[in-house]
From TrEMBL:
This is LSM12 homolog. One of its GO terms (cellular component) is cytoplasm. PROSITE patterns: AD (PS52001). It holds the Pfam family AD. Residues 59-153 form the AD domain. The lineage of its organism: Eukaryota, Metazoa, Chordata, Craniata, Vertebrata.
């Protein structure tokens, strides 16, 4: 059984019912999880207790923070779409995302990655392709690029060893 709140009157959630009464899975006080239940998958509803009192108001939302997050995510998706449409390699896209996690001030300029308006990384996006005025920015970006490719190589080695494991087990069992 799932405790349910009220049916939604919002057109976006027309086929859903939600429950604002679930304690927060994060454990934070004064927070609650909201469960959305798709009514298209519900075959039976049983009313156990009909409430007459008005439910407590939902917590207020920080609209400016939500708008800012939506704007940032939209910009990131547009940047990804630009890279794909410009024919940037998968390695270049992955490197861009790695750099962007650390340094938000990075963008595409055709197929080049421009970081902090100071460092340009050209294809094939290796450490030696990092160009800019010698200094802390260039040094920092080179370290990020080095670490990125070390991590990618480690991941490949791990994947290969995991792929070989079933083959070894199959060989041993035959």
């Amino acid at each position: 059984y799932v405790p349910l709140g009220c049916a939604s009157a919002c057109p976006v959630f027309l086929n859903f019912i939600f429950s604002p009464e679930c304690p927060s899975s994060s454990g934070k006080p004064n927070h609650a999880d909201i469960l959305l239940i798709n009514l298209q998958y519900v075959s039976e509803v049983e009313i156990i207790n009909d409430r007459t009192e008005t439910p407590p108001p939902l917590a207020s939302l920080n609209v400016s923070k939500l708008a800012s997050k939506a704007r940032t995510e939209k910009e990131e998706k547009l940047s990804q779409a630009y890279a794909i449409s410009a024919g940037v390699s998968l390695e270049g896209q992955q490197l861009f995302q790695t750099i962007h996690k650390t340094i938000k001030d990075c963008k595409w300029q055709e197929k080049n990655i421009v970081v902090m308006e100071e460092v340009v990384i050209t294809p094939p996006y290796q450490v030696e392709n990092c160009k800019g005025k010698e200094g802390s920015a260039l040094s920092h970006v080179r370290k990020i690029v080095e670490k990125h490719f070390r991590d990618v190589e480690s991941q490949k080695i791990l994947q290969r060893s995991q792929a070989q494991q079933p083959q070894k087990e199959a060989a041993l069992s035959s």
